[in-house]
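The records we work with from here on pair a chain with its fold. These numbers are not coordinates but entries in a learned vocabulary of local backbone shapes. To see the layout at work, look at the sequence and tokens printed below.

. . .
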Amino acid sequence: MKKSIWKYVFTQTSGVVVGLISVCLPILIIRKLKPSLLAFSDSISITVFTICVLLAFVFIMTLWGKVLIVLGFLTKEEAKGYPYAKPWLDK
């Protein structure tokens, strides 16, 4: 039986959009709270900024995978490894 790939197209494209938002969100928050942190005047600022962006990305992408399960776009098996999994290739 041929699987419908449209739900996978949606989940993969939405993953890109949500991933970009998860990178931009900490930048906007840090910019509001402490604008001097984005000046990158020292290595500590760069480290803190990078850690914030990476943590936000991991957290939001994990949360988005859970939202896709709750909304019924993906099953738990299909969501394993989201957004890198390719369940439409499974036979």
